[in-house]
Amino acid sequence: MNNLDKYNDAYIELLNLKKEELGEKLFYQSVEAWDSVGHMELIARLESDFNIMIDMDDVIDFNSYEKGKAILQKYQVVFD
Amino acid sequence: MSQQLFFNKLEAFAENVAYIDEKGNSFSYHDLTRISDALVLDLESRELVLCVASNSSDFLTGYFGFLRKSLVPLLLSSQSNPSQIQNYIDVYSPTYIFIPKGILTLPDNFQKVTHHGEYELFCNSNNFSKLHDDLALLMTTSGSTGNSKLVRLSFDNLQSNTDSIVEYMGLDFKSRAITTLPFNYSYGLSIINTHLCVGGSIILNDHSLTEAAFWERYDKFSASHIGGVPFTYEMLYRFKEKLFGNKSLKTLTQAGGRLPANTVKYFANECNDRSINFYVMYGQTEATARMSYLDCLNAMHRPHSIGKPIPGGKFLITGENGDEIDAVGLEGEIVYEGRNVALGYATKKSDLILGSEFNGRLNTGDLGVRDELGFYYIKGRSSRIAKINGIRINLQELEDFLSIYALTFGVVSDDTKIYIFYEGDVDKEDLVQEIASHLRLRPTSLVLKELNSLPRTISGKIDIGSLSQWI
Asked: Which residues between 45 and 74 in chain A have a beta carbon less than 8 angstroms from any beta carbon of chain B?
């Protein structure tokens, strides 16, 4: 599985979203499941799937699907 | 007595900062009483006012206005959906309704009286409420699904619990809390009441700890006090550098369910090193808010304990016949006695004229023991109620709900997750979503497990006790 699939699966499985819902329009709190609890679960899941530790400030800055991708790239996660 | 109530003595704190609003503006106690009293000036006292609560300056001033006018607020969550709010209106027929603009279309018999910032106040002028003289406030029992059960709290309940908490925490006019819990949740409300009782301040905040805006307010307005449920502590652990980076922090409190012992120890040690007070607390809405507390030093050494009763309160461990078991280490139901024990429940309008039914004595439904030093420990639960991040889930009700699937279910909980065991064939993913939305819990708080056969007692009932081994 490539990194983008892994990234997408975290949203699909954890926040119960459909693939069509992922993208530029997906923001923190734009869907009910992505609330503060969902956010912490999403971060924990990404840390575990990519074997990284995300900094406190990045956890806070991670406020959209696209921003999340940009942040993960700081941790050497490459999206093709 | 009314002169002794904290909300009638706010004027004494004159120019102290009472609250900092959403925009960052400070308001004095003079401002608070002026704005609160202006709202209620023309209202009838001793009437029921249904409120959808929020951590906003508009709601805070409304709440104090109502209390000061001896109106009885019925506090509902801003997460309530319109049909739930409508249900409370139908059951209790409030004379006044105080809700954020545009969240609900009210029945025709309600006329708009005024607006109050983002809130509007409505009145049914043909209605009047029959309320017991002692009744001060109505709160929901958290997590109840689809019913309209309320806890009836008296003026003395509010005042005595507020006084007890102020005493053991040593809160004073320098204390400044930032809101992290819902206003309509007894623990969240107790933070507001205690701080405004002593001339301290509330930083109104509606942001989650995962948002930069929360930490900006936390630093900028020098918060000294944060309260949280177990999930809040998961976040505080993650954001510990921000949390402890603010040197004005003086007090951390935790309630709303069991925090893992290693987390208790972590925060107790960190707080102790920094001379910050840390309290693990135990309570229920039926006790207004708090029943016991464990301070920082004791939390370091006995992180499993719920501590000792609050000042003025008392625990009894009782056997099956309800008599006290006066022995160290013997398990029984924890019964609490104190002035903060609610008058009773309400399930219909006519219950609001009732006086005390609990008579100062509350069966907590929790099983516990006392050690030789007088510390209490919870060992289990006699009633089938789970508590997940402050939300109470009735496991029996859940099993009843699940019976529509025509399968056999057994439900248990360790207060971190709900475990649902079943026999038979079912689409697990769908069921998880269905239950989560029914309980308003997250899917990850649920664990579904199929068993070839559920354990049963001799009489053929599901053996709930032995299900716990599968957790």
From this structure: 56, 59-61, 63
